[in-house]
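Appendix B. Raw example, untouched.
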Amino acid sequence: QVQLLESGGGLAQAGGSLRLSCTASGTRIHGLNIMGWYRQAPGKQREMVATITRGGDPNYADSVKGRFTITRDNAFFTAYLQMDRLKVDDSAVYYCNAVGFPAYGGNWWGQGTQVTVSA
């Protein structure tokens, strides 16, 4: 299985920055393909923020393009989300997600980390 450990959430002012990290561990980490971040604000559905493939191809939600950057260090099975020019609307619980290659399967979630952006 795969366990995902998130860190880096917290409080920031609008216009500020935060960096999230997600490190995968477990018996199936070598089969991981996509890693990414999703978020869920109170009363709203969980939404994709950014994902990145094993090969380094990123994908972003329109709402964060140009402000957030997702990167990945395959040697350490870690994905990072650099969040710049934060907005109050970015406040949410951010969840790390990892998906295995089709031959391996699997879809795992982290526990979530709170990001709060104040005006």
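End of appendix B.
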